[in-house]
């Protein structure tokens, strides 16, 4: 059975490892191509956009795909909307891995929850502060509107967007650990952190470190992300794929 994984996350890589040696499935990983040197993949990989919903439909048809797993990041809303529309359009089953968000610990976490990166820049206030930006590189331009702050941004690759004047980059990718995060925030004398509510263990240590140092976290809310059958972990996606396989086999035995 041919399947497509929409990836770019730890869950996608974990599902790929589950599928790599399973001869029942012929899986392809799809990456957007945002990262200059993506992690080594264990599955055949295609890189780059499909060209919208119509392009995705064509690709799925041309490659004889029988099921799609959307394992993209909680903030990658457009590709998920396209996956729902394309899979509906050509009647292919879609399963979506939905990573649980982090929960604020009452009385211990100081989160300022905002809807957009623009609102996050505004929420930093007027007084110059030392701000740790941990939101990736694509949306850093919003902070050009708050040029009074000193920013330290952690990204995987250098950005190609307009930036605030006083910004320094730390190039790194998770997972991170609590002690290192706490030491980093203290050493850099960070006053505030800006984060997405990505969920998962890999980048949670910065949230724990902020809690321990009693630092405010400007938390950008998750976007609306359309989905297919909701799956919580890669193992559930594997189980769902096995169900699709069994369903496909029984359909073909019935001649439907
Ligand atoms: P997005 O805004 O939802 O998608 C924008 C466009 O990028 C899509 O319309 C599609 O282009 C292309 N695209 C996105 N994911 C793709 C994939 N896995 N394979 C092929 N094309 C893809 O996505 P994004 O937020 O820029 O995220 C891009 C990638 O980075 C995703 O794989 C995501 O899992 C990963 N990622 C994102 C974040 C984040 O904070 N947004 C964090 C970590 C990892 P076409 O319309 O041309 O098909």
Characterization of this structure:
With 256 residues, the protein is an alpha/beta fold. The chain folds into two domains: 2-100 and 223-254, Rossmann fold (3-Layer(aba) Sandwich); 111-220, Rossmann fold, CATH 3.40.50.720. The protein contains seven helices and twelve strands. It has helices spanning 10-20, 52-62, 77-89, 117-123, 178-187, 205-212, 234-254; strands at 2-6, 26-31, 45-47, 67-70, 94-97, 111-114, 130-134, 150-155, 167-171, 192-196, 217-220, 229-231. The strands form two sheets. It has a six-stranded parallel β-sheet, sandwiched between helices. Strands 6-11-10-7-8-9 form a six-stranded parallel β-sheet. α6 (205-212) links the parallel β10 (192-196) and β11 (217-220). α1 crosses α7 (234-254). The longest helix is centred in the last third of the chain and has 21 residues, at 234-254. The two termini are 16 Å apart. The relative contact order is 0.17. The model has no long low-confidence stretch (mean pLDDT 95). The structure holds NADP nicotinamide-adenine-dinucleotide phosphate. NADP nicotinamide-adenine-dinucleotide phosphate binds next to β2, α2 and α3. NADP nicotinamide-adenine-dinucleotide phosphate is lined by residues 6-9, 30-32, 34, 49-52, 55-56, 72-73, 75-79, 82, 136, 196.
Features of this protein?
binds NADP nicotinamide-adenine-dinucleotide phosphate; elongated; alpha/beta; 2 domains; 256 residues; Rossmann fold; six-stranded parallel β-sheet
- The end-to-end distance, rounded to whole angstroms, is 16 Å
Number of structural domains? 2
Main sheet makeup = 6 strands, parallel
Q: Ranges with pLDDT <50 over ≥5 residues?
A: none
Q: Name the shape in a single word.
A: elongated
Report the sheet-strand fraction: 15-25%
Q: Provide the succession of SSEs.
A: EHEEHEHEEHEEEHEHEEH
Total of DSSP H or I helical runs spanning 4+ residues: 7
Look at the helices and sheets and give the structural class.
Answer: alpha/beta
SS elements, strand count: 12
Reading off the top of the CATH hierarchy, the class of the largest domain is best stated as Alpha Beta
Give every kind of bound small molecule, once each. NADP nicotinamide-adenine-dinucleotide phosphate
Strand order of the largest sheet: 3-2-1-4-5-12
Tell me which CATH architecture of the largest domain applies here. Answer: 3-Layer(aba) Sandwich
How much helix, percentage-wise, in residues? 25-40%
Q: Cα-atom Rg, whole angstroms? A: 20 Å
Average pLDDT = 95
């Amino acid at each position: 059975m041919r399947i497509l994984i929409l990836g770019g996350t730890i869950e996608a890589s974990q599902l790929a490892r589950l599928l790599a040696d399973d001869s029942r499935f012929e899986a392809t990983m799809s990456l957007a191509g945002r990262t200059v040197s993506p992690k080594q993949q264990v599955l055949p990989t295609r890189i780059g956009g499909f060209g919208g919903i119509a392009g995705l439909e064509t690709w799925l048809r041309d490659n004889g795909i029988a099921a799609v797993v959307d394992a993209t990041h909680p903030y990658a809303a457009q590709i998920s909307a396209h996956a729902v529309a394309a899979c509906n359009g050509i009647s292919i089953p879609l399963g979506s891995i939905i990573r649980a968000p982090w929960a604020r610990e009452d009385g211990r976490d100081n989160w300022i929850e905002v809807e957009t990166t623009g609102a996050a820049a505004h929420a930093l206030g007027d007084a110059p502060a030392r701000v740790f930006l941990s939101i990736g590189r694509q949306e850093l331009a919003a902070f050009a509107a708050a040029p009074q702050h000193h920013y330290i941004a952690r990204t995987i690759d250098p950005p190609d967007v307009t930036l605030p004047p006083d910004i320094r980059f730390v190039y790194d990718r998770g997972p991170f650990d609590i002690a290192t995060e706490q030491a980093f925030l203290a050493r850099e004398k960070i006053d505030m952190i800006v984060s997405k509510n990505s969920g998962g263990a890999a980048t949670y240590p910065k949230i724990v470190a902020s809690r321990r140092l009693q630092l405010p976290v400007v938390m950008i809310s998750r976007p609306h992300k359309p989905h297919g059958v909701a799956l919580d972990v890669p193992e559930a996606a594997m189980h769902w794929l096995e169900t699709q396989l069994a369903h496909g086999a029984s359909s073909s035995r019935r001649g439907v």
